[in-house]
Amino acid sequence: MRLAAALALLLCLGVLTGCGTSRSPGAARSAPPAPEVTVDEITRFARLDMPPHPSDVQTGGESGIDRLVLLRFSAPATEVRDFLTGSGFPAPKKGAQGVQSDLGTRLGWGLDELSGTEGASDDTGDLVRQVTIDRSTPDRPTVYVAAFTV
Question: In terms of pTM, does the model score above 0.85?
Answer without folding.
Answer: no
